[in-house]
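Thread amino acids onto this structure.
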């Protein structure tokens, strides 16, 4: 029989085997983890670069669209100011009876009467005739006409902006 009992050798071999296995597993895992961390860092850098490029491209597109919108808006405002001045001038001329508004009427009343808000007409017989509107009525009608034209112009401006946006979206990759 040997002087050293076998069970301590077996325990020592087991402990050495466990530590060796643990060390090998640790080395493998830390290498894999390090590689995963490196891969993750490379992917994150590429993602940040792509995001930065996309943001720069989007900002450039927004700047272009803002310039287009500013141009459209400036043109619209200049047109509106000119139309507003012309409308004001026309309404003032109508109200002061400098200009008269004549309307065509069909089937004049048989009694020879006149329509409310109109002056007497210079016509005879039945059928088509022209009558001059009273200055206040003509000015009120011209004012309403100007208001409606402004709404139509606003809608036209909105359509131009939308068409510009659609063209921009269609040309983007």
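Threaded sequence (173 positions):
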């Amino acid at each position: 029989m040997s002087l050293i009992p076998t069970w301590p050798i077996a325990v020592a071999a087991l402990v050495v085997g466990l530590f060796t296995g643990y060390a090998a597993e640790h080395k493998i895992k830390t290498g894999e983890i390090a590689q995963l961390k490196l891969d993750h860092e490379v992917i994150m850098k590429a993602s940040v670069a792509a995001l930065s490029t996309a943001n720069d491209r989007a900002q450039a597109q927004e700047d272009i669209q803002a310039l287009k919108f500013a141009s459209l808006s400036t043109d619209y405002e200049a047109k509106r100011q000119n139309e507003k001045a012309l409308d004001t001038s026309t309404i003032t001329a109508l109200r002061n009876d400098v200009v008269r508004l004549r309307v065509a009427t069909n089937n004049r009343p048989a009694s020879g009467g006149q329509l409310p808000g109109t002056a007497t007409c210079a016509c005879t017989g039945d059928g088509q005739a022209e009558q001059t509107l009273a200055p206040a009525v003509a000015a009120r009608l011209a004012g309403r006409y100007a208001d409606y034209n402004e709404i139509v112009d606003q809608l036209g401006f909105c359509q131009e902006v939308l068409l510009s946006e659609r063209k921009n979206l269609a040309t983007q990759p």
